[in-house]
Amino acid sequence: MLTSKSATNTHKLNRAHARRCVATAGASQKRTAKAHAVASAQAAAASVASTLAASLAVAGPALAADGDAGSAVGSVVGVLALAAGAGVFFSAADPEKRREEMTAAAGGDEMASVKTYFETEGASRWKKIYGDDEEEVNKVQLDIRMGHAQTVDKIVNWLDSDGLDGRTVADCGCGTGLLSIPLSLKGANVSASDISGPLVEEARSRASAAGAKSATFEVSDLESVDGKFNTVTCVDVMIHYPQNKVDAMIEHLASMSEEKLIVSFAPNTPYYSVLKRIGELAPGPSKATRAYLHKEEDVRAALKRAGFRVTRDEMTATNFYFSRLLEAERA
Ligand SMILES: C[S@@+](CC[C@H](N)C(=O)[O-])C[C@H]1O[C@@H](n2cnc3c(N)ncnc32)[C@H](O)[C@@H]1O
């Protein structure tokens, strides 16, 4: 039995112990909360950075629209600040080296490596980005979806204003058919093709659901497509290839076009080069290694060599999507 003195002492001791426990628990909770906050911030930064990298990789193309360039810078600065605050480690691997490694993994064949990506993880990623469910995509992907929709609208408006009824269009690298389908619905006869079997399947099923009866879809790399068409389109594909390959692609696409050739690419400007480099600094096997920016004068020169002159140009720049669009006509 405790005496009142010992009970008082015990009570004091218990109170002191309780205070220590509360203090310890508080400190521990604070440490846990801090660790949790750092871990969350790290995860968020890594996720944003890798999404940014992926989007820069494949989103592709354009000259920055004045206002939008500012917000893109803001986004990138935000990512860097978040990453720095969380102490995220960005591996600054040489993108050229990583590009070579990815190509080597596909037996040294760059096109095979692109095909592998778009038949596996790229297929599901781009089906979602090019879908219409807002819950399936994150904010960056939603931004890319909106930016890409602007590019498609611009092309459809150009061609529609010149008359689409009965015109033949080859949409090379058609993806899920986001351009082929509206062109078909407006009366064009569309021969669409893509290097990726799963994306061609998706395009077929979307075309059928939309009632786009005058569009056909086949699996083919664009340099193996043949035929003659009023218009040839190749949208957001060139970002996957270096300039010498793009030169060959433009030459082939031009040989199939009797009138118009429409291409888009990610412009190689100092601003976009920095943006892309930041994307490439994200940790992990970044998709950004597959992205090539192209100098507009190089693309224009390739069009000129192929006998085409640029008749319209546009650009689309959202926070994460950059696409320079050129329409050229046989000179
Ligand atoms: C970013 S997506 C753009 C899809 C479509 N042009 C659009 O704008 O909705 C790039 C597409 O290019 C395709 N692609 C990549 N390399 C290709 C090649 N050599 N020949 C044909 N398609 C290719 C990919 O499979 C993918 O569907």
UniProtKB/TrEMBL annotation:
Residues 1-20 are annotated as: Disordered. Residues 1-11 have a biased composition (Polar residues). InterPro entries: Mg_prot_MeTrfase, Mg_prot_MeTrfase_C, SAM-dependent_MTases_sf. Pfam families: Mg-por_mtran_C (PF07109), PrmA (PF06325). SUPFAM superfamilies: S-adenosyl-L-methionine-dependent methyltransferases (SSF53335). One of its GO terms (biological process) is chlorophyll biosynthetic process. GO terms for molecular function: magnesium protoporphyrin IX methyltransferase activity. The keyword Ligase does not apply. This is Magnesium-protoporphyrin IX methyltransferase C-terminal domain-containing protein. It comes from Pycnococcus provasolii.
